[in-house]
């Protein structure tokens, strides 16, 4: 079946300038051609379906490179979420994937869930038991005993134990490997200290690559980032510079330069602060404890923006990811991430590219999705107006197509 889409403009996800008065041809669920102005005579067969999206911008389905589908993003703490049964966590993950798709996010990378719950949700969607964003999953994030997100079941220590854990995740069906290289938001973990030794990190990378998987690391302090770069990781999540229990950050130029020279992409996750500040500001009569949380996040948000800008200036590659599910971060939050990246120095087009074509390349799926190049899966969305003028327009979804199938249409 052939479909032709007419739109005011088209952003192809490569970083190239938008095409005005665009015509997009979709054939057998794949991207065919893109034309400007008009469709050449005789290009498509009779009986072709035509979709008129004038007044809209067409672009690739969005990709969120950092989500936690197990978590609802309603402010629930991890320690509360993990009390639910695996059945509830699978259901939550499936619903989150559906909500992401409705928001124009056609692919998500889940960077940590309990046991095999995200794998099960992924399989249900693959079997056609409902619509949802395409899921790339690591399964259990690998962490030291008692480390960040240990509740998910990913505890492993020592070089041999870590190799076995990588193999276990691959056996369950991991698309990639995720490692908690520092502490984080889990109670009693230390975000300002590395979790694994350099030798352990090197063993993790060696085993992941032996198994044909990319490997990424959660890093919230400079020392863990330095060790992760030395070990040869493929990605870094957050890229923070926390130095003490209070969560203060101290930017380390040498660390940023090291990441930039290595060419290792870092996932932004600025939306966590954005959504948390929004939630706390919405409380009209805050208790002293709530005011303390707001003040702390105001400071942390400022520090996050500072290190984001300075790392960008150092040449670090940032890819868009929200940490959806964590704290108040909703699964639909990628447009806010783009807006915050723009506040940090990105152009609107650079931000969109960081959540489409660049995201696909970082995840190793650029031969399947991420851009509107001929031969790739027809993951296509349409939004009202021009998001290059106002990134919030990415929240006004008028059509979602996944693999050539229309999943949502708003007239």
Mean pLDDT: 96
Strand order, biggest sheet? 3-2-1-4-13-14-15
Q: Given the structure, what is the number of helices?
A: 12
- Structural domain tally: 2
In angstroms, what separates the terminal alpha carbons? Answer: 22 Å
What is the chain-wise order of helices and strands?
EEEEEHHEHEHEHEHEHEHHEHHHEEE
CATH topology of the largest domain: TIM Barrel
In the predicted model, the low-confidence regions spanning at least 5 consecutive residues are: none
- What value does the Rg take, in angstroms? 21 Å
The oligomeric state of the chains shown is single chain
Specify the structural class.
Answer: alpha/beta
Question: What is the C-level CATH assignment of the largest domain?
Answer: Alpha Beta
Overall strand count: 15
What would you call the shape? globular
* Range of strand content: 15-25%
**CATH superfamily grouping of the largest domain:** Metal-dependent hydrolases
User: What's the story with the biggest beta sheet?
Assistant: 7 strands, mixed
CATH architecture grouping of the largest domain? Alpha-Beta Barrel
Binned, the helix content reads 25-40%
Task: Summarize the structure in words.
- It is a single chain.
- The chain is of the alpha/beta class and 411 residues long.
- It folds into two domains: 2-60 and 371-409, Urease, subunit C, domain 1; 62-363, TIM Barrel (Alpha-Beta Barrel).
- It has twelve helices and 15 strands.
- The protein has helices spanning 78-81, 86-102, 117-126, 159-172, 198-210, 222-231, 253-262, 271-281, 288-313, 334-343, 348-354, 357-363; strands at residues 2-10, 19-27, 30-36, 49-60, 62-67, 105-110, 134-137, 176-180, 214-219, 235-238, 266-267, 318-319, 380-384, 397-402, 405-409.
- The chain has a seven-stranded mixed beta sheet, with no helix packed on it. Strands 8-9-10-11-12 form a five-stranded parallel beta sheet, with helices on both faces. The protein has a three-stranded parallel beta sheet with strand order 5-6-7.
- Strand 1 (2-10) and strand 2 (19-27) form a beta hairpin.
- The chain starts with a strand and ends with a strand.
- The model has no long low-confidence stretch (mean pLDDT 96).
């Amino acid at each position: 079946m052939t479909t032709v889409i007419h739109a005011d403009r088209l952003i192809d996800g490569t970083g190239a300038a938008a095409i005005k008065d665009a015509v997009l041809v979709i054939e057998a669920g794949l991207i065919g051609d893109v034309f400007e102005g008009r469709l050449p005579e005789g290009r498509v067969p009779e009986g072709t379906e035509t979709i008129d999206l004038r007044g809209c911008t067409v672009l690739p389905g969005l990709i969120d490179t950092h989500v936690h589908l197990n978590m609802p993003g309603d402010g629930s703490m991890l320690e509360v979420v993990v009390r639910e049964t695996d059945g509830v966590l699978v259901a939550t993950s499936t619903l989150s994937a559906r909500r992401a798709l409705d928001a124009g996010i056609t692919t998500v990378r889940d960077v940590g869930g309990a046991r095999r719950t995200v794998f099960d949700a992924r399989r249900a969607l693959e079997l056609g038991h409902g619509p949802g964003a395409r899921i790339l999953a690591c399964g259990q994030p690998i962490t030291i005993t008692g480390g960040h997100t240990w509740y998910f079941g990913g505890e492993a220590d020592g070089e041999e134990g870590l190799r076995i854990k990588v193999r276990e995740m691959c056996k369950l069906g991991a698309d990639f490997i995720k490692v908690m290289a520092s502490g984080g938001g889990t109670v009693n973990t230390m975000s300002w200290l590395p979790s694994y030794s350099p030798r352990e990190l090197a063993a993790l990378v060696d085993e992941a690559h032996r198994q044909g998987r990319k490997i990424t690391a959660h890093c919230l302090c400079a020392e863990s980032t330095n060790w992760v770069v030395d070990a040869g990781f493929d990605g870094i999540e957050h890229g923070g510079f926390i130095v003490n229990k209070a969560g203060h950050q101290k930017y380390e130029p040498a660390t940023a330069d090291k990441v930039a020279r290595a060419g290792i992409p870092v996932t932004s996750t600025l939306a966590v602060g954005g959504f948390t500040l929004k939630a706390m500001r919405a409380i009209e009569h805050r208790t002293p404890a709530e005011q303390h949380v707001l003040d702390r996040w105001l400071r942390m948000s400022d520090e996050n923006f500072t290190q984001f800008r300075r790392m960008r200036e150092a040449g670090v590659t940032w890819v868009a990811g929200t940490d959806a599910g964590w704290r108040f971060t909703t699964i639909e939050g990628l447009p806010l991430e783009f807006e915050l990246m723009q506040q940090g120095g990105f152009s609107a087009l650079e931000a969109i590219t960081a959540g489409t074509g660049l995201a696909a390349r970082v995840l190793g799926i650029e031969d399947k999705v991420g851009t509107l190049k001929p031969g790739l899966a027809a993951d296509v969305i349409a939004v009202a107006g021009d998001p290059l003028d106002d990134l919030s327009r990415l929240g006004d979804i008028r059509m979602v197509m996944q693999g050539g199938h229309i999943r949502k249409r708003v007239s």
